[in-house]
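Why does residue order matter? Because the sequence determines the fold. Keep that principle in mind as you read this record.
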Amino acid sequence: MDERMNPYTTTPELAKLLIDFGSSVEKAGVEPSLLELVKIRASQINGCAVCLTMHTDAARQEGETERRIYLLDAWRDSTLYSARERAALGWTEVLTRLSPAGVPDDVYEAAKAEFTEKELAILTFMVLAINSFNRLNVGFRMSDSAVPTRKAA
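Structure:
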């Protein structure tokens, strides 16, 4: 598969805004390990190899286990995820796959039960950010081979 173009180098000023936005959301107050799970799950749904490479590496650096990373796309059927993680993953999925019916009440109530209003807003902004990166990377066929391998801390 050939890369179409690199939007990060074609419009670096816009890319920087998106990168800075994502970085700001990461620092806003929700645990980094949970945000990495959210980024991985959205990237699985969207088929973004670049983001999957980056965020599985980052999750490992946050102490995430291989087993939980491997089972993330089957989180509903696994006992490995907490109620808070399940609520975040459900929220991520419905916002990533927006339906004409909108967000179901049960998904919202599950998220509201596990997150403060501020945390839920932060989580939503993270879903927004990762979906933006996914769409850039998938749309322009960005290659995961360009992602530097991270060294374990």
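Residues 84 and 115 are 8 Å apart (CA to CA).
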